[in-house]
Amino acid sequence: MGQKLKIAGWVSLGVVAGALTTVSLQTVARGVMSPMPLEEIQQLSAVFGLIKTDYVEPADDKKLITDAISGMVSGLDPHSQYFDKKSFREFQEGTSGKFVGVGIEITQEDGLIRIVSPIEGSPADLAGLKTNDLITKIDDTAVKGLSLNDAVKRMRGEPNTKVVLTILRKDESRSFPVTITRTEIKTQSVKAKMIEPGYGWVRVSQFQERTVDDFVRKVDDLYKQDPNLKGLVLDLRNDPGGLLDAAVAISAAFLQPNVTVVTTDGQLAESKAIFRASPEFYARRGSDPIKSLPAAIKNIPLVVLVNEGSASASEIVSGALQDHKRATIMGAQTFGKGSVQTVRPLGPDTGIKLTTARYYTPSGKSIQAKGIVPDIMVDESAEGDLFAALRTREADLEKHLSSGQGPEVKDEAREKAREAALKRLDEESKKPASERRPPEFGSDKDFQLQQALHQLKGEPVQVSQTKTERPAEKKDEEKTSTSDKPAESTTDDTKLPPASEPKK
């Protein structure tokens, strides 16, 4: 046994040393010289050998190594990640805005899946599925007990394959099966409508490859309906982020040419960059996608709605518009995801997503673990913010990166608000689901949207009586200067490698 352990240890040490030699060479090539921790490398080798010889059943070498890589990367911060083949493919689908499925936006309700809305022109839409339909079965599997992610995975699949959804339509008091053929779905990340004569609403739910083109088309439609628009609401609530170039383009649509939109800063020279409201920073195919927008959009009165779910790219947009005094930001302090992740390939279909920089607004404020503080705090409803304190923010995540602009201060007021919200949640959970459902964004019952409209008209706004800015950090150092050059194509979650061309 001792001899086996020694052999396994030496073999594993050779494997690990070879991999680390490659990493070491790459580190030297980047101009960062640091000694390798040999004692810890020997311990890693010893653990590998012990598992190979002593574990209750044979362990797969590849799985042990990939698990070690995954643990090493995920231990850094909440956004660094190792991509195996499957997760890398899913990540690419998320940024492209394309996937194979039935084409519905869903949420979970009382253990079932509720359809928020079918995507226009999708198989689900053509099959007649409606908003508020409940899915009770996916093929032969009951939905009750499935997580939302499990339900999504069962509805997705290969193109031209079929899935049977059992639908409960409450308002018609009937349940019926629908057979749907899966196809490639292109998600719609932009919605728009006239909320009343002279005032438009544009919602961006995520920044994807098609977002800028969709945004231009929707805004053009609003101006065709009313060439003399008096005001516009840009709704970024619950927008988790997405592609950086899309965020820069949406910002540039409202800003004067060539002003700073966002800066980044990290250890690498390529991480020190300034992104400006200029086509070279967002035009992918050479042409300027926002050039056709009406000139009036540069000066139209603008309100941006944000909340605790507004993260990353949506924080970049709201921060830029706020710093340049181009818009009034209303709602709640945003999530605070102000870090840049870069995808480094480890092979043809695997890689790591590594945090390489922080985001800063044009005035130099770090977004990370802080977020954007609205100019006007507005509650979710006339009764106040019922459960906002329960929502997780960047600063709540374990191992989150600091802002880099001073130590964090514990928010004791928020802890008390959490306790009150938990009691309220317990009371609300006893009510029927229909009474617990929040109003849809953009509807006439959308309280924050109505307050945004009041702001545009110069009417009184019902300002929050409970919201306060999260405690500021003590600023003990300024961020280092950034270079004035565009970085490689980036997402707010991820900076993609040059070899990763966007899907067409």
TrEMBL record:
Keywords: Hydrolase, Protease, Serine protease. Residues 88-170 form the PDZ domain. InterPro entries: ClpP/crotonase-like_dom_sf, CtpA/B_N, PDZ, PDZ_6, PDZ_sf, Peptidase_S41A, Tail-specific_protease. It comes from the Bacteria. Residues 398-504 are annotated as: Disordered. Gene3D superfamilies: 2-enoyl-CoA Hydratase, Chain A, domain 1 (3.90.226.10), 2.30.42.10, 3.30.750.44. Signal peptide: none annotated. Pfam families: CtpB_N-like, PDZ_6, Peptidase_S41. Residues 408-447, 467-504 have a biased composition (Basic and acidic residues). SMART domains: PDZ (SM00228), TSPc (SM00245). Belongs to the peptidase S41A family. This is S41 family peptidase.
